[in-house]
Specification:
Layout (H helix, E strand, L loop, with lengths): L7 H14 L18 H16 L9 H15 L6 E7 L4 E9 L10 E6 L18 E3 L2 E3 L3 H20 L8 E6 L7 H7 L9 E4 L4 E4 L7 E8 L1 E10 L3 E2 L8 H14 L8 H14 L1 H12 L4 H7 L3 H4 L5 E9 L5 E2 L2 E10 L5 H12 L5 E7 L10 H14 L4 E7 L5 H6 L4 E3 L3 E4 L12 E3 H19 L13
Parallel strand pairs: 3-6, 3-7, 7-17, 8-18, 9-16
Antiparallel strand pairs: 1-2, 2-6, 4-5, 5-19, 8-9, 10-14, 10-15, 11-13, 12-14
Helix pairs in contact: 1-12, 2-4, 2-14, 3-4, 4-14, 7-8, 8-9, 12-14
Length: 494
């Protein structure tokens, strides 16, 4: 059961989810051929694909993304996709040659339904091999997991969606609309290929996009408390530079106007700075779920803020739970400081990096102005150091959310499913900015939410969850692009 206490829009989604689960969706229509549920052979193929992807070290600067794109393109051709429906788009950056891969799964001729884009990224962050217990780029099965850089972020879901396209194509399944796989090659390092994809003629007219880069969940070690999310919004990542300057001088003649003292005052001002509580449909649903899940004084504080965002006492309680509280407002935190010119000289320059995750719809310029006003008494100046694209939240989509609910139930019946606003960044922000509503979906699960190793040492994916995930994509793709419910062959849910 989804526990939601929220505004009318969220209540409408919850009601629509219940109703949609009991009847065919508006997308369900007759197609030329149907396909059965995933088989052991399909799961073996998915395992083969992910291991192949992990072995290709698609780190920035390696020039290996085009190699991976070519390997996948060959698999699609072998499955029966026409060469004209597979495109590798090269992109030359300052330090790396990368690429995007676009695969068009053609829908029924004459269909008036708009395409659906499926997103993922082929690149990975770097890995220091000496810190790992295994070679980061040699897939190793151990303790029920598959280890390897990119195994979670994002090669597992890329392998699963690619395998889903291959198995459905081989079975002769014809979707009721075009499905377009759009894989970027530099999500971790600039997203220039992502921006190319948003303008691609097969993609730009999509009704919505499903982002496989943000489809995970978690559960307790005993298998209880299963929780999954539909990522429908992202904060904007922006780094600012706060600077204090002084004419300096000899350290034997100290003065009160010291650039380090000024920076200390600026730091204190930033420590006391608070951005206002804000809500959209997505984080309102998240907070309602948190209120029910946390209970006690914390749950009550969340409920109070839902109705009274300016309540200072409730905010003070919520701030004691930073792992939850960040969904309520823009966050800014100092991360690096550099200053001074010599041991025996008064400091002339001090620089502070402040990293912010900005609430959707809030402009980076307005945050800069807020920071500047806070540190102005300390004679500090603020400028933008590095910024990512800012994007709006995607609207709640009752039909799609109901389809995701059914897909999650294939493997984890009864798990909670809530909309999510992410503090991290994905390709989805560029698609939202281009006017394509984008939703992060999936049901890959980790045991313990604090064991997410994406970007970290010994990154790994749970193999039992990986094997089940083909069932999720089978149900979801057929729901949004075709098979009548009676033609589906379900799988038992946990």
């Amino acid at each position: 059961m989804i526990r939601i206490r929220a505004t009318s829009s969220v209540k409408r989604w919850a009601l629509a989810t219940v109703l949609a689960a009991a009847m065919p969706t508006a997308w369900a229509s007759s197609v030329a051929l149907t396909a059965g549920a995933p088989t052991d052979a399909d799961r073996a193929l998915a395992r083969e694909v992910i291991e192949q992807l992990i072995r290709i070290p698609t780190v920035e600067g390696n020039g290996q993304v085009p190699v991976l794109a070519a390997a996948l393109a060959q698999r699609f051709r072998d499955a029966g996709f026409a060469a004209d429906d597979i495109q590798i788009i090269p992109s030359q950056g300052e330090t790396d040659t990368t690429a995007a891969l676009v695969v068009r799964y053609r829908g029924r001729p004459g269909s008036t339904l708009r395409p659906v884009a499926l997103l993922g990224h082929m690149d990975v962050v770097g890995a220091v091999a000496s810190n790992w217990s295994v070679d980061p780029f040699v897939p190793v099965e151990k303790d029920g997991y598959l280890y390897g850089r990119g195994s979670v972020d994002n090669k597992a879901q890329v392998a699963l969606v690619a395998t889903s396209f291959i198995r459905l194509k081989r079975a002769g399944w014809v979707p009721s609309r075009d499905l377009v796989l759009a894989l970027s090659g530099d999500e971790e390092s600039g997203s220039r290929t992502t921006q190319l994809l948003t303008r691609h003629p097969w993609v730009r007219g999509a009704e919505f996009a499903l982002n496989a880069d943000s489809g995970t969940g978690d559960m307790s070690v005993d298998g209880s408390n299963k929780a999954f999310f539909i990522q429908a919004a992202e904060k904007t990542s922006v780094s600012y530079k706060v600077e204090t300057r002084n004419s300096g001088g000899h350290s034997s003649v100290p003065r009160p106007d010291n650039a380090l003292y000024d920076m200390a005052a600026a730091l204190q001002a930033l420590r006391e700075l608070r951005f206002p509580v804000q809500f959209n449909d997505i984080n309102r649903a998240m907070v309602a779920e948190l209120a029910a899940k946390r209970g006690g004084a914390l749950g009550q504080a969340f409920r109070t803020l839902l109705d009274h965002p300016g309540d200072a006492a409730a905010r003070a309680v919520v701030e004691q739970s930073p792992e939850d509280a960040h969904v309520l407002w823009t966050t800014c935190v100092p991360t690096m400081v550099e200053g001074g010119n010599a041991r025996n000289a008064l400091p002339q320059n001090v620089s502070l990096t402040v990293h912010c995750r900005i609430f959707p719809g809030v402009s980076p310029e307005s945050v800069r102005d807020t920071l500047a006003a806070a540190v102005a008494p300390a004679n500090a100046r603020v400028s933008v150091d590095a910024a990512r694209a800012s994007s709006p939240a995607s609207p709640i989509h009752p039909g799609l959310f109901a389809a995701v609910r059914k897909a999650v139930d294939v493997n984890y019946r009864g798990a909670t499913l809530t909309p999510q606003m992410s503090s991290g960044g994905t390709d989805g922000r560029y698609f939202r900015l281009a006017g394509i509503p984008t939703y992060g979906v999936g049901s890959l699960v980790q045991v313990r939410p604090d064991d997410d190793r994406a970007h970290g040492i010994d990154e790994r994916v749970r193999l039992d969850s990986f094997a089940r995930e083909l069932g999720f994509w089978d149900v979801l793709l057929k729901d949004i692009a075709g098979d009548p419910p009676a033609a589906r062959q379900g799988q038992p849910a946990l």
